[in-house]
Amino acid sequence: MKLRFLGGAGTVTGSRYLLSDDKHRLLVDCGMYQGVKTLRKRNWAPFPVDPSTIEAVVLTHAHIDHSGYLPALVKNGFKGKVYCTKATHALCKVLLPDAGFLQEEDAKYAFRKKFSKHAKPEPLFTEKDAWESLKHFESLHYHESFEPVRGMEVTFTPAGHILGSSCVHVHHKSSQRTVVFSGDVGRQEDVIMRPPEPLQKADVLVCESTYGDRLHADTDPEEELAQIITKTAGRGGIVLMPAFAVGRAQMLLYVIHKIMGQKRIPKLPVYLNSPMAIKATEIFCKHNKEHRLSAAQCEMIDDQTEFVRTVEESIELDSARYPCVIISASGMASGGRVLHHLKTLLPNPRNSVVFAGFQAPGTRGDALVNGAESVKIHGEYWPVKAEIHNMDSLSAHGDYQEILSWLEQGQLKPEKVYVTHGETVASDVMRKRICEKFGWDAEVPELFDEVEI
Ligand SMILES: [Zn+2]
């Protein structure tokens, strides 16, 4: 069996791994590139193998950097099925059409502002393409094995990163080899997600390394957040939290309502301003057997959050002058409604902006957490006077220590580990740590490398 790295190599986005033998081709993850322009441009390159020759796709989870290229793959000739867990399917029904809509908006914007070299810029795919790709989906339960292509048996195990997230185990029957893709790996002690299930067997392991060179701060995130909110409210400011619509938005809502109930922060309105995050929250509450929150706790989130759905309500919220908390997408401030709030709130030192997840290089979120004095939004520069916080401790990715201890919990003796899904330095540090701790043979592959496994 051969494994080819078609993405997620040397960067955290664009996860795509191709497994093939003499007769069959299976793609694991079909992500979009995000972040700096050179990476985003890769989304426009022809897919490195003819999509019509791929028989099936298996997804680790719903985040766009793992699923977002699917509509383009289908548009370019992919005819097979897309397999994932039940919750991943539910979340993709929200995320993919939204991604198509955003592509169309971007193309229209480029046309209006004339910054495309094409007379009529086209979207990478449309909302309609996204709905078309969703017809190819088939969902399964964790631990239920299936054969997406003949001779390759696949199972999902919980990865603890977001709702529905999984490690993908592929057993190649004729060679009797098993390769495991970690996908994005969650935390050992996440507030809302259960820890990732230990891995039992892998001849080859493909492991993520988002935080391969970093440890999350050893602080109590609830206490840190309570202090930020109390201080900001005390000076009459607003706390803005750019958050990934799926995953971190639900965690933040839970933590904020919890500390408010314990009177550790003043009673103030909490807004969720993202139609996609609102839908993701509904899905999260519906799948309450898959995470740590009870039905009653989900109900509390539902009752105590002000959901901002329409554009009019969003504009009205933008003129709020009273202390409140606003959670809005996107998580790296690369698009979405959060941009309007940033324009209003950044220039005022009374306000605070709190980031709660990984900020990919080249994004506005990355610039802000690294102390930018101004940021460009909608063609204009906005001064950064608000307090900026980067709460890594709220991330949905395990740091290197957590990933190593997760690997240690399993019964693994892989012959080879490929370290992916990290910036160059992070992946290399992770590789060294895996070699040193376990004595396993680990390597950081380059984009388009193909290996025999
Ligand atoms: Zn993810």
TrEMBL record:
InterPro entries: Beta_Casp (IPR022712), MBL (IPR050698), Metallo-B-lactamas (IPR001279), RibonucZ/Hydroxyglut_hydro (IPR036866), RMMBL (IPR011108). Pfam families: Beta-Casp (PF10996), Lactamase_B (PF00753), RMMBL (PF07521). The keyword tRNA processing does not apply. GO terms for molecular function: hydrolase activity; RNA endonuclease activity. The keyword Transmembrane does not apply. Keywords: Hydrolase. It comes from the Bacteria. Residues 13-237 form the Metallo-beta-lactamase domain. SUPFAM superfamilies: Metallo-hydrolase/oxidoreductase. Coiled coil: none annotated. Residues 249-368 form the Beta-Casp domain. SMART domains: Beta-Casp (SM01027), Lactamase_B (SM00849). This is Beta-lactamase domain-containing protein.
